[in-house]
Amino acid sequence: MGTLLLACVLASQSYAQTTFFKLADTTTSIPGGSGTFTDFKTPISDVDRAIFYGEGTAGQMGYYQYDGTTSTKLVDRNTAVPEGAGNFTNLSFFAYGVDTNFVFAGTDAGGMKGLFQLAGTTLTKLGNTNTAAPGSGGNFSNFLGPAVAGNSLALLADGPGSYRGAFRHSGGTFTRLVDTATPFPGGPGNLNFSGQLAFDGTAAAFFAFDSVSFTGGIFSHANNTLTSLATTNTVMPGFANRFSSFQSPPALSGGTVVFIGQDTVPTPAVRGIFAVPVGGGTLTALVTTATAIPGGTSGNFSFFNGFAYDNGALVFAANNSSGVHGLYKLQGGTLKTLLAGGGLLDGKTFTSLAINSTGFRHGIVGFRVSFTDGSKGVFAADIGQTAEAFLGITSYLSASGATVSFTGEVSRAYRLQYSTTLLLGSWTTLTNFTYTAPVSVADTSAAGQAKRFYRAVSP
Known about the structure:
The protein is an all-beta fold. The protein folds into two domains: 18-382, Methylamine Dehydrogenase, Chain H; 390-457. Helices cover 0% and strands 53% of the residues. The protein contains no helices and 43 strands. The chain is globular, with a radius of gyration of 23 Å. The two termini are 36 Å apart.
């Protein structure tokens, strides 16, 4: 029998196909727990895995990982708290971060709140309410959802009294970026924060409002500089309206900040998803309530229920004026439907979709779904990567293996990987590189293999 070889590029828009995976639903047994899940929060994605928060009866809660075949427990209320009292009694369901390492906020049996990191199977404390909050004059009192980039992270956290600040954690040290003592740019008061922030390893983006005038805005912090990107005094691109409010959090990827903004004063309200360079500049409307829903039968978008953005590709959940929900992708100026409103998923009709701003990475987007029969579930979609590239197999010899050729986007980082099953968690990295010119890569381990699949992944 011969050898089966298949090459694919998840970075190719032209050949991208949407494949859906069910992570878990309300008929799924809780790993390490009892009974089945009763509810979920929006999942997040990482390389070859998705992580979600799930709940069950009798106060069960935890974080769970889906690797392409099964869901397993990462942390739950039976997990001992490192450097804390007993087991976790509460976990932050509303936001968490992952980029190889998984970071979350939790509370121990003594009521102490902390920030924790799971690297592989090793769980460590990054900080707790005994940790000094730089610039606050005291210790941390609460930790909000972290945003993770490699071995560093950023988050909003509370200190004494009404103090709140944005902090970076790297190398075991917390550093203050801005806080409630920082003047609101151009306003009479100081910054006040809500929600969570976005972080790409060098810059942070967040929503804040003026403590005196209550003017709200989207801001970035990069190179020790605070920049106002859009406020309620800013005209919405494509409209005569000014923003009246923003939905938190924004997303940050590839030097671009993306956010949901709206003017709710008129009827109907004007809403949209907008982009702006992280250092400030011209705002661009990506999709708005003036945008027709693909297919031409459902009118325009009416409300945006969440989005995620990764290196030029936008995935968002939205509905029309009749409340019919769908999942959509905008890339390279082309708007496509991933899940049509009122359609079927897993053999059932869905009624609503929700997506987290950190839910889209490496071509995998995670989302939460409610169905007409009252059930709920969390799913992931492999929608392809975000840059055009071409991957081919130039030769194969059973004695020496395969040679793989690749053409991609200059200055973009890629990983060439292989698998024998195509399952999400089955891919092995052959090589890593930053693309400068067409390359050929030898895979000697393919010698004598019955079948092998190849893919290029960025980043």
